[in-house]
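Support request from a user on the community tier.

User writes: "When I paste my structure tokens into the form, the page sometimes reloads and wipes my input. The last time it worked, I copied everything first. Here is what I submitted, just in case something in the input itself triggers the reload:"
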């Protein structure tokens, strides 16, 4: 794993955007795996600025998002479809039909999960997957205990995840209890992974990830076995200033 520690969230976002832009320029037909949540917002902002200033084009790019809440339609401001449209897709030249997100209001979740996997396979898989991490080590919405072999599936969200995400909803009661997420096996098939970690509240998760122990109770730990992972973290997440701080470099 390559580890790069950035001064703060702003620098982290800039560094992540630089990597994404580089991959898109090298392969304008890239398939990108995207994440929602608070962490990638700054990265998306940088991509939009670069698109307007330097004309990086997403016309031939396809994107697959990691997850979507069950029961929320795309018009719902709390859905991840709405988030992605507002935070990125509506501000760059990507074709909206090339932006794939699981359908949260499907009548048949089994079929929807299979359809998503098939679409991914037909595209030849994800070239670069952007990830965030939950404090409990979740990636996508794969909560602790999820099989490392899992493919796109329905999950019951952990109470800690519901609490953490309540900040985006009018009240905690309105946070959906279930979601569709790419599986850990699906994520691990990506050719390259870029994990973004920001803030002191993620410090413990970073330490556990970098301990090297691989365990289904800490889903992100599987990233230790992926051949091409870069972790970008800010100083707060790296615990810089602490005695057991993380150092830049390869592990
Ligand atoms: C989002 C996702 C989640 C988040 C994680 C961190 O699509 O799949 O795994 O990346 O919950 O969220 P933030 O960035 O809000 O701390």
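"...and here is what came back when it finally went through:"
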């Amino acid at each position: 794993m390559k580890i790069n520690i950035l001064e703060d969230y702003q620098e982290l976002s800039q560094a992540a955007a630089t990597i994404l832009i580089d991959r898109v320029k090298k392969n304008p037909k890239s398939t990108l795996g995207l994440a929602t949540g608070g962490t990638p917002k700054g990265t998306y902002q940088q991509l939009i600025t670069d698109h307007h200033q330097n004309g990086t084009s997403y016309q031939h790019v396809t994107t697959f998002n990691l997850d979507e809440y069950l029961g929320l339609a795309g018009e719902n401001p709390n859905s991840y479809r709405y988030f992605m449209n507002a935070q990125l897709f509506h501000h760059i030249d990507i074709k909206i039909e090339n932006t794939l997100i699981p359908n949260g209001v499907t009548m048949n979740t089994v079929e929807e999960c299979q359809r998503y996997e098939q679409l991914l396979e037909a595209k030849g898989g994800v070239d670069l997957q952007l990830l965030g991490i939950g404090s409990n080590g979740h990636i996508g919405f794969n909560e602790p205990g999820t099989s490392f072999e899992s493919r796109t599936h329905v999950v019951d969200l952990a109470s800690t995840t519901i609490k953490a995400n309540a900040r985006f909803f009018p009240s905690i009661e309105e946070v959906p209890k279930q979601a569709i997420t790419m599986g850990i096996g699906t994520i691990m098939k990506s050719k390259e992974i870029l994990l973004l970690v920001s803030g002191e509240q993620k410090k413990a998760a970073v330490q556990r990830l970098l301990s090297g122990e691989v365990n289904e109770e800490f889903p992100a730990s599987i990233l230790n076995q992926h051949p091409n992972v870069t972790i970008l973290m800010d100083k707060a997440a790296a615990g810089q200033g602490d005695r057991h701080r993380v150092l830049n470099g390869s592990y």
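Agent notes: The reload is a front-end session timeout and is unrelated to the input. Residues 35-39, 66-67, 132-134, 138-141 surround fructose -6-phosphate (CB under 6 Å). The chain has one domain: 2-246. Escalated to web team.
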